[in-house]
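pasting for ref
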Amino acid sequence: MNIVFFTQEDPFYVKVFFDEFLNQFRPLEEIKAIVISHPMGKKSILKLAKQMYHFYGFYNFIKMGFRYGYVKLMGKKKIERHKSRTVPKTYTIKQLAHVYGLNVIERSDLNGKTFLEGIKKYDPDLFISVASPIIFREELIRIPKLDCINIHHAPLPRYRGMLPSFWQLYHGEKEVGITIHKIDEDIDTGDIVVQHSVPIHPQESLDQLMVRTKRESARLMVKVIESFRKGEVRYKKMQGEGSYFTFPSREDVREFKRMGKRLL
């Protein structure tokens, strides 16, 4: 099995997924590369900062800003794998991949001809998107021999789109979903590989929920890869039109807080 991951350098939540996944998954030699794309898409740093300010509010924005700055600083450190095979503390996905001896490709032109030709050299069986900010086009989707899959933290087709954990808390759900599904050229519409639900704890913040579900989804992904390896994957069509949500507005966040819910 030759596996290529596609993701972005998010130190708060996506790295939690990879921390748990790489701790659980074997053999690591099957992971041929982790492709890390620019996290902001078409947004400038200023526009992204403004969006985050409106989402978090002044105090939480400052708090998250300090956390992010610390991670960026520590992420420049060169961290070697300890001789005892104990994984040292890391701050970025790139650092984590390094201590596990995994190949990192930093590219955002995933649908470009040069990248498409280059990624084929890994003879991939499976592409896995974990919060990749790039929309996959048909030529990229067709490359792996088995499939191209994505993980989404909602019970698709409900809660398609952005920040699904926020919207599930916002609407008073008692549990959040995790869906692993085929990637097609639309957003969060491909056939379902597996779905799983995680109960929401009383008084749990959005931050706590996202960290906990990222760990749970990593363990689920390990099982899904094993199902692909054994040829036991059975797909299920998504039923119904579902729902789609964009990034929360300032008023959405105000209402979220009025309901007694917490971001951090």
